[in-house]
């Protein structure tokens, strides 16, 4: 006689193939449902990863206005108003800003001089 622990096993085997095939179908259905759920979770996880990557890329490419201001104001030979105008111009044009920030001090000074020549008839200090 089976023990109480094994009673569920005994009942399942004593019921025959008719019930075990229906329970097998239910288990297979549950497995298919889990596979679809796993696919959905995997797709969602990938999409969240893509969004996180896009946010990181945007934050890396964002203009650091404070760093730009400090860099422009360090250019020697120009008054504060001229450098402020150059800064305002750079803030409005991201590609110029990236190029300006990549240059060394001498090339930045030449850039500001060219900016003054092109935009103003203001003498330098």
Automatic annotation (TrEMBL):
Disordered: annotated segments: 1-40
Biased composition regions of type Acidic residues, renumbered to the chain: 1-11
Alphabetical list of PANTHER family matching this protein: 10A19I.15 (PTHR47127)
Protein name: Uncharacterized protein
The species this protein was found in: Salix viminalis
